[in-house]
Amino acid sequence: MRGAEVNVAIAVWRFLRSGLRSFLFVGLLVAAVVDCWMRRPRVGAEGAVWIHGWCRRIVRVLGFECMVEGAVPSGGAVVSNHLSYLDILLYSSVQPFVMVAKKEVRGWPLLGWLTAQAGTVYVERGGGPKTYPAVNAAMAEAYRSGLPVLFFPEGTTTDGAEVLPFRRGLFHSVLNGGVALRVAALRYSLDPHVVNAGATVGEDVCWWGDMEFGSHMFKFLGLRGLRAKIRFGEEIVERGDRFVLSETAQGVVAEMYEGLGLEAGANVGWEHDSELVGAL
């Protein structure tokens, strides 16, 4: 009975934590909208720099410890694995990026409007060749912003079991513009010393498949001991065509991601950026 009472207490505290963080999260989004209306940053690079500051605040409210390794890119294109809607917030908290996101993100309440202010390029999944000219033009404009352009070539989010093959479409813009391409890997973990009532990274942090956004977000906000590790890699120099470029980049990202997993499992060298820490 005592064990059952403990489990009930943990569930209650997690529910209360979810409620508090939900309130703070929505409050920050509303405050960001008001701030944007007052400051009127221009859509694009100026908007990306502006939203960077708000993402740092949001990451603290979410309770993440975030560790960053490698030289943070200052321009060109960056490709990463894709695990959740959280990825954009984490990357934007580290450095202003012009993001590439699926078209559906534009319709999300508040979040969609905010991402638009940062000059996000919205891509229609499965749009086919008819969408290429518009996407390539939007990507070319994003590269001219002077900020690094981040996209997720897996084309979907996953549970983190593996890095899927990269879709080749957006690599057209990298080759056509002679844009330098760098790689990055992102991995989430939960502090093993914190009780989260059976929560797992694959089901409770990653967002994939047909998971419902609202319920996932609420449950996620109740977690403790959240960790994220981002590793930036070197430039990909093998770029004969989009096939070579995409496959080479995928191989490097997969290797980096696996390395982050081995380190997380061994609990090796965990340190955090104190400015990105949040613990509620």
Which overall shape is indicated by the principal axes computed on the Cα atoms?
globular
Query: Helicity, in percent?
Result: 40-55%
The portion of residues forming beta strands comes to: 5-15%
Order of helices and strands: HHEEHEHEHEHEHHEH
What class would the helix/strand composition place it in?
A: alpha/beta
Order of strands, main sheet, comes to 1-7-6-2-5-3-4
Number of strands: 7
**Contiguous runs where pLDDT drops below 50 for at least 5 residues:** 268-280
Query: Any idea of the CATH topology?
Result: Glycerol-3-phosphate (1)-acyltransferase
Radius of gyration: 19 Å
CATH class: Alpha Beta
Major sheet, described briefly?
A: 7 strands, mixed
**Overall mean pLDDT:** 88
In CATH, the architecture is: 3-Layer(aba) Sandwich
Number of discrete domains: 1
Count of individual helical segments = 9
Q: How far apart are the termini?
A: 29 Å
Protein name: 1-acyl-sn-glycerol-3-phosphate acyltransferase
Pfam family, one: Acyltransferase
Organism: Tunturiibacter empetritectus
Keywords: Acyltransferase, Lipid biosynthesis, Lipid metabolism, Transferase
